[in-house]
Amino acid sequence: MNIEPIAIIEGCYPEKFGIPRQARLVTSAEAEIRLIPPYQSKDFLDGLENYSHIWLIFGFHQNEWQGDAKVRPQRLGGNQKMGVLATRSPYRPNGLGLSAVKIASIDYENAVITVAGHDLVNGTPIYDIKPYIPFTDSIEDAKSLFANEAPGKYEVNIHASAQMAFNLLDEKAKDLIQSVIAQNPLPSYHQDYDRIYGVAILDLNVRFKRNHNGFEILEIHRNF
Amino acid sequence: MNIEPIAIIEGCYPEKFGIPRQARLVTSAEAEIRLIPPYQSKDFLDGLENYSHIWLIFGFHQNEWQGDAKVRPQRLGGNQKMGVLATRSPYRPNGLGLSAVKIASIDYENAVITVAGHDLVNGTPIYDIKPYIPFTDSIEDAKSLFANEAPGKYEVNIHASAQMAFNLLDEKAKDLIQSVIAQNPLPSYHQDYDRIYGVAILDLNVRFKRNHNGFEILEIHRNF
Lengths: 224, 224
Description:
Two copies of one chain form a homodimer. By secondary structure, chain A is mainly beta. In chain A, about 10% of the residues lie in helices and about 30% in strands. Chain A has helices spanning about 135, 160-170, 170-180; strands spanning about 5-10, 30-35, 55-60, 70, 80-85, 95-105, 110-115, 125-130, 155-160, 195-200, 205-210, 215-220. In chain A, a hairpin with a 2-residue loop joins strand 10 (about 195-200) and strand 11.
């Protein structure tokens, strides 16, 4: 079956690295979902104001599945293998992702939905948008033997070298940077205390390192 | 993007008519999700026993979207039009559906998942299976201004003419037939008290009519 994008996401994550591993972990992460022709019309969205959240069915367009039946989920420390269909891994048959995000606002004239708490890289193609219907989507008695809670958050400090730059940012950007790094963006097999890592957030390049308490932000540069 | 089925559903609904309008409304509705080659291997499912529910991303293969931006949702009585992306209508761009169903059992050797509470017609192609992860999928504060509760159930009586046949069925089939009709399978623009309707459930053809209290089952035949 051939499917085509109905919308493209324009958000705060220019690169895959650093993106929270599930939707709504970083609620300050905003993005615009822009419907594209021939779907770019308010008619397609009419009535969406009746809902607080939507589902996005999207393409993991930067992850190509290599045919592996098993993957090593991050949430299991990256050591244990599981069947790909028992995980939410981005490397999967058909490469489709599913995220529930909060509607922040709807611009009907331009056919743009602003959402909060997304977990998608800039430019991600959206194949479907559906209202989140609590009575059928929110399953009270659903159980999972792991990944049962949101992952813990790490402490994030601003090193003296970056404090002046950090202070120049607006509150939203400050919160977003700290929240993204507090999720521990490093892969589980790579938690090097000596190395300096860089993450792209909005139009910023944020350099940080791991320490015993959590993370420390060392540099913040604007990408031109 | 081209996507291909990873599994096919084999269930209790041979036809679209009568299928509950959301997943888990009729919990006695069981189906087998059979992985197909090259996905027909227990490796793809390994670890799924850790979850109680799964998401199915499937194709509305019997509904062809005609390009309409607006639809008339059943839940609004079929009179009011809404943007298709503000509904769960099966007539939609890319024709993808989303349902959460309960795992009843997993046959790893044959790569078959038996699920309960499904809402899919026999032969529906499945494009993805994902574990339902409560902390990210079950949104406590999600709101909807309508479709907020499961639809009410109607009273279903067995007419004397069908009582003997009904008594021959096993308990599961009895429950399934009554539950399906209790949902009121008739479209909102078609609630004719004089007409006899037929619905296909399992290998049975069940004939019933609408009355002032609810529904009455008149005949039950086995399809050969």
